[in-house]
Amino acid sequence: IWTTVFGRRMADEALFQFLHYELMQYIYKSADSKETENGRNITKLENMGFRVGQGLIERLTKDTARFKDELDTMKFICKDFWTCVFKKQIDNLRTNHQGIYVLQDNKFRLLSQLSAGKQYLEHAPKYLAFSCGLVRGALSNLGVKSIVTAEVSVMPTILLQKI
Amino acid sequence: MSRQSNRTTDSKKMNSELFTLTYGALVTQLCKDYENDEEVNKQLDKMGYNIGVRLIEDFLARSSIGRCQDFRETADVIAKVAFKMYLGITPSVTNWSPAGDEFSLILESNPLVDFVELPDNHSTLIYSNLLCGILRGALEMVQMAVDVRFVQDTLRGDNVTEIRMKFIKRIEENLPAGDE
Question: What is the pTM of this model?
Fold first, then answer.
């Protein structure tokens, strides 16, 4: 019984990961294979993530009370939203209290399929674009306008910066 | 289906919504990129196939199901284990052909189409066609060539969603090159 329960809980996440991968492949394949296209593809993925993030947060916060301030909102993103999307919370949240937040995920799920190495860092942005959009979209519907970027330092950690 | 605590139900639902919403974004993008529904259907099938050939490994690892003895068993596994595991629904298996090589999966509800409405100019779009590709790709990896198609679709006004699966043939394992 244990195995079945465990399998079930992670399975829908796996399905999403497969879909995300195909989505990435599609966006990149359907563009010309020129260097300059990379930026456009990242933007496309980010925009798709944005719309999905908006839709998700709407349902997630349907019965939630309003947030008292920006930090409260960010904590929600780090805990509830991140858990909903990535099945875990953000590991570390830092802020300069002047509008910049850094969210650290030490085991970012969507990167877990990529193996370590230089090639990894090269391809990581593709894997992060949609998720950045998700966060930006979620924040947008919570009334927070933001720019969300991601960085991969030591794999598979990512740092999201909301400005 | 028994209900668990609210929190678990919610987070399960939320996650299927992530998939549903992402899938919706994908279909929207495809409709933008391609001139006609037929092309979109083909793309969805292709992408589904790519997912299926990898999903099968994931499925076998999670479920520790052994080799199916026959197509009937395959049908049951697909409906009761795979669909339940990945999409949280259990379609019913019906309408077996006399030869036992064809059956239908009836989905009372289809999580992919939650909150989705087809606009008028997409009447031939098979919105959930990804599923057909997934099934086809997955079964090919276990040596079964099948034909999978939608015959009823709630998005197009039918009462239920019906997927028809037909066994074509057993695929022989490929011999490594240079064996001749």
Answer: 0.87
ipTM score assigned to the predicted complex: 0.87
Q: CB distance B26–A18 less than 8 Å? A: no
Instruction: Tell me the domains of chain A and their CATH numbers.
Output: 1-162 (3.30.1380.20)
Q: Three-state DSSP class for B177?
A: coil
Query: From the list A11, A51, A52, which residue is nearest B85 (CB)?
Result: A11
Domain boundaries, chain B: 16-116+124-170
The Cβ of residue A161 has, within 10 Å, a number of other Cβ atoms equal to 16
Contact of A8 with B80, CB cutoff 8 Å: no
Q: Which residue of A23, A56, A60 is in closest CB contact with B26?
A: A23
User: CA-nearest residue of chain B to A133?
Assistant: B22
Distance from the B180 Cα atom to the nearest Cα atom in chain A, whole angstroms: 36
Residues whose CB falls within 8 Å of the CB of residue A91, separated by 6 or more in sequence, listed in order: A104, A105, A106, A107
Task: Evaluate if residue A155 carries a pLDDT over 70.
Answer: no
Strand runs labelled E in B61-143:
92-94, 102-107
The CATH fold assigned to B16-116+124-170 is Muramoyl-pentapeptide Carboxypeptidase; domain 2 (3.30.1380)
Contact at CB, A26 and B85, closer than 8 angstroms: no
CB contact under 8 A, B33 and A30: yes
Which of B12, B15, B22 is nearest residue A23 as measured by Cβ atoms? Answer: B22
Query: pLDDT tens, B94-144?
Result: 999 999 999 999 999 999 998 888 888 888 999 999 999 999 999 999 999
User: Hey, is B35 helix, strand or coil?
Assistant: coil
B15-73 per-position pLDDT tens digit: 678 999 999 999 999 999 998 999 999 999 999 999 999 999 999 988 888 888 899 99
